[in-house]
Give the backbone structure.
Amino acid sequence: MKSIYEKYNLKEVINASGRMTILGVSTPVAAVIDEMNVGLQHFFEIKDLLDKTGEYIAKRLQVEAAVIVSCASSGMAQSVGALISKDDLDLILNLHTSLKIVPREIIIPKGHNVNYGAPVASMIALGGGIMVEAGYANECSLAHIETMINADTAALLYIKSHHCVQKSMPSVTEMIAISQKHKIPLIIDAAAEEDLMIYHQMGADIVIYSGAKAIEGPTSGLVIGKKTYIDWIKLQSNGIGRAMKVGKEGILGLTKAIDLYLSTPQTTGAEMLEKMEPFINKINLLNGMSAKAVWDSAGRDIARAELYFDEKVLGKTTFEILAKLKQGSVVIYFREYKANEGKVEVDVRSVSSTQLETAYQLICTAIN
């Protein structure tokens, strides 16, 4: 019997870039897949299923309310839509065409207006919002944010991600303080973050997570927060949320994944360091290359290996080497944000020791 790779002429992927959407994010464990299969094989009242799983998750996380959505991006769009339309049926049904004058501005630090695979601005616009940038790409103060607040402000938005500018930006604590001072809801997009409770406990109104990243569930998203806001998000299923609906298998699969995530010890950065040490040592023996351990730029407990390609010694550009590593029947994807500097990062969370050895062999071929 042909494998999936053979049947569709697909490449086998060594995912050393982390839990990225372009590679399918993560690989759920058998218990999650079994729960998804139960969902696929049975019928439910979907609204009831969403309500009951949301109540269950909220109790597990000790938060006011929760709802499962199709992905973190849809969570952002629907959260924006919810804070604009609230429970107004006309606005829910006609979010982009209603002539009603309501607050639609979403204030975001300029350094957080990033493209994470799609522009943050597009998700705000999809939710019927008007993005307002505060500050500059390399600096945003509390004063910059406060001067943008006016009667048309619907919400503040904070993106907790390595994609964002990290220096000279307001902290989560500061954004929450501004939100509470001006009585304006704060949305935190924490898609890849690993602590599912901290931002809600700190006082954020809406927090959005990817179901398939740290939680390692199916393609899905989780939105937690104040009950009124979560109820408004659920109403978006009658409007823009219809195009973002999550299936019954995704709902049950993510709920199971959250259960496992909360009860299973997570791999620590120290364990990642131990796993990658032999790989780093071997890379450092290659002419024209060096490697070292680095830590996640957004502050998560994630250690990675940073590889440096000395282009003068190798006689090839880093981009040429990376292109070659993606041409065979087995391909490697690294974190390539600094490839213009001759650097890539190796994320070992989804890579086995055998795959690390394969990656080493393929690198040796690509640089020679």
The first helix runs from residue 4 to 7. The mean pLDDT is 93.
